[in-house]
């Protein structure tokens, strides 16, 4: 006997036990850390620590190999200040991207009481995530690393040990931008330093021995070039995602937009939290927005569908 999807969903609708409210226990209260968001993922934590160490290494070479031994005082002071401000902003953006809740949907809220409290119009469809027992808003996806459903999830980035979603995309974009800028700045300084050392005596251009100096500079060159390419591609992709209002997962799945798109400048304003201002570049300024539930509508009867998305967040891992 054939059942049309409508019949099957009607069945689900008649059986509230399908929702397993007894399994949907709210998550345990957080301890003394309060509401701080932090993903306990070994690989992600290791990648985040590597990121900081790479920035510290670059800063060390810039300061102690190139700028401090230089006899051009003004050149050293200006470049030292610019590089350190950019490096500080990169690390601050990294911390904000890592420690900001990317837009997690409350865990275990797929209870009958909650669905009733939503006061859905007849015909609305709500999706339930089978893994975290939550009612999934439109465009939310389950991340297997964060073990949560994330609103407008773009991808899970191990370098910031967090998902990139609605609430922390700004910090992620700033992080890629500042890393690209310090990489470019370091490359330019290495170029000038090599020119200077070729013209002058090699023993005079650094406080380290010439072989050590060359090795430290070449390693910095590799690091800066690699990260300049990686972060500028990521920055471009993110800005493109924001301007087309399509997340990385939606692009991968080639989804037809069911949402009303916020394009170009309006998309940038939405992602960066308001009209253009210097705060767009400030990783310390927050985003003021009230999260919408964003549930989708369809014809006849409230329907709860169980969505299966085991692969999407895996595919989107970079
Ligand atoms: Zn989920
Ligand atoms: Zn995640």
Describe this structure in words.
- The chain has nine helices and eight strands.
- With 318 residues, it is α+β, with helices and mostly antiparallel strands.
- 35% of the residues are buried.
- Strands 1, 2, 7 and 8 form a four-stranded mixed sheet that branches. A two-stranded antiparallel ribbon has the order 3-4.
- It has one domain.
- Strand 3 and strand 4 form a beta hairpin.
- The longest helix has 35 residues.
- Helix 5 runs antiparallel to helix 6.
- The two termini are 44 Å apart.
- The N terminus and C terminus are likely disordered.
- The site of one zinc ion has 5 residues, from loops.
- Its main location: membrane.
- It is a multi-pass membrane protein.
- Belongs to the DHHC palmitoyltransferase family.
- It catalyses: L-cysteinyl-[protein] + hexadecanoyl-CoA = S-hexadecanoyl-L-cysteinyl-[protein] + CoA.
- GO terms for molecular function: protein homodimerization activity; protein-cysteine S-palmitoyltransferase activity.
